[in-house]
Design brief:
6 helices, alpha/beta, Rossmann fold
Length: 231
């Protein structure tokens, strides 16, 4: 039974990843900050038998991340999905920037995925598949930024793209492949009700991309449909 650890599974894309991998007979380690408030996730755990385990993890807290890894008891992790993220306050354009919030967004979206990668690297290296996937955004693409705005969110995603490009180089000698994936515009609390994709559609498509990854893809930036995205 392959294993996957997913961050940010209390709702949206993370919850759907947990649901689909559990249904596909993977052993799922589903992490979130406050499991007691994650009603849908707890219901999913109850109906999935022993395939889904909920683990408390606040990705911004190094001690919390370490404690979560200890709960795995050395189990190899075939696939790490860095999904936890935040959009930050809306409307952050030049002249209207909340600098405190910007730092918070960078902590969640950029620093924390690297923190999780470092904590899980040994367990991923011991697995069969040895994959690390970080959910990014097309809004982190320098090429695609023709509308401006969303400075905190855009910079956090551009930065995590670069961080994971470096991680891919650093971990290549351990046989670990590391990629970033844009999930598309998804109908979630973050994406809003006007988004064209459901979480189920986005995750199903991303899972097809993930299933086809090879070490040669490490360091690349993909769209949910498998096309390479411009940096």
């Amino acid at each position: 039974m392959p294993t996957v650890l997913i961050t940010g599974t209390s709702r949206g894309i993370g919850l759907e990843f947990a649901r689909q991998y559990a249904a596909d007979e993977w052993k799922v380690f589903a992490t979130c900050r406050e499991p007691r408030n994650a009603r849908e996730l707890r219901e999913l755990a109850q109906t999935s038998g022993d395939k889904l385990t909920i683990i408390p993890m606040d990705v911004t807290d190094a001690a919390s991340v370490r404690n979560a890894v200890q709960e795995l008891h050395g189990t190899p992790v075939d696939l790490l999905i860095n999904n936890a993220g935040t959009a930050g306050k809306p409307g952050q354009t030049t002249g209207n920037i909340d600098y405190t919030n910007w730092l918070q967004v960078l902590e969640v979206n950029t620093v924390s995925p690297v923190r999780v990668v470092e904590a899980l690297a040994d367990l991923v290296a011991r697995s069969e598949r040895r994959l690390m996937v970080t959910i990014t955004s097309g809004m982190g693409s320098l090429t695609d930024n023709t509308e401006g705005g969303s400075i905190a969110y855009r910079t956090s995603k551009a930065a995590v793209n670069m961080a994971m490009r470096s991680v891919a180089v650093d971990l290549a000698r351990r046989g670990i492949a590391c990629i970033v994936v844009h999930p598309g515009w998804v109908r979630t609390d973050m994406g809003g009700s006007s988004a064209p994709l459901t979480a189920e559609q986005s995750v199903s498509a991303m899972r097809r991309v993930i299933a086809q990854l090879t070490p040669r893809d490490s360091g690349k930036f993909f769209d949910y449909d498998g096309r390479e995205h411009p940096w």
